[in-house]
TrEMBL record:
This is ABC transporter permease. The chain crosses the membrane at residues 21-41, 76-98, 110-133, 161-189, 209-229, 268-290. The lineage of its organism: Bacteria, Pseudomonadati, Pseudomonadota, Alphaproteobacteria, Hyphomicrobiales. Residues 72-289 form the ABC transmembrane type-1 domain. It is a multi-pass membrane protein. Its main location: membrane. CDD domains: TM_PBP2 (cd06261). It holds the Pfam family BPD_transp_1. Keywords: Cell membrane, Membrane, Transmembrane, Transmembrane helix, Transport.
Amino acid sequence: MRRLSRAGRDALTDLWLAGPATVMMIVLIFVPVAIVALLSFTDYQFGARSFRFVGLENYTTLFTDPIGRRAVTNTLLYVAVVIPFSMGLALLVAMALHEMATWSRMLSNVLRAAYFLPVAATLVAMALAWQMLLHPSIGLFNAVLSHLGFPRQDLLSDRGLVLYTLAAIGIWQTIGYNMVLFLAGLAAIPRHLYEAAEVDGADRPWERFWTVTWPMLGPTTLFVAVITATQSFRVFETVATLTDGGPAFASETLVYALYREGFVYFKAGYASAITMVFFAFVLALTLLQFRILERRVHYK
């Protein structure tokens, strides 16, 4: 039997190593996405024996129906609030803990664990804890407001405040994870860069941040932005646990609308259209972040 050439053996090795993973990706990711995309152009309902193609009707309904538009605008507003505040506060916390480690490593480690607790804890359990804290009559938040002389607030039932309340909880949830990523980025910055910047006249903390820290955190910032955007778009647990999309759909989001239409009303076609819109938003924001932040990234 004729022996294979070196190129042939390398090709077989590559196929043996990457082939199974590639097949699994196609079967478990690309094929389901294609099926969902196809279903989004139909009126299929779970359990139905037949369906018909309706073209862009599901997408038109999503953007013309008041409830559908509310889900889209609420999601975009939630993302617009969570991403900058989550990243900004996480960076501030990471820098403070990074500096604290130089004179008290034990205290720094304790605070790191405290900030990371929301990431490690069960999200539904933490949502229930927030529900008790924000309770209009027995919650700690309103007790503090009443003690300070302010009127009590039902933050989870006020149509004007509920979405911002959920966004604040979302920021609290993501700060710990983003903090860990920024801490890793800060630890990788060589100390001699700060010394060189100080020799060049950047002797103030703010100047060192802009000349050394921020540019060197470029890759970390890009990664954190993408991860935070993805997590913000798929907010579901807090909405389902605390508000059920209410009051009057004031906290309705795309993922919760997807759940309700697909698994409560069994409108698989309409839920598939919501899924594709959700995917399009996440993809567009990710590409935009890469286009804007990639130019500012300094790879080491």
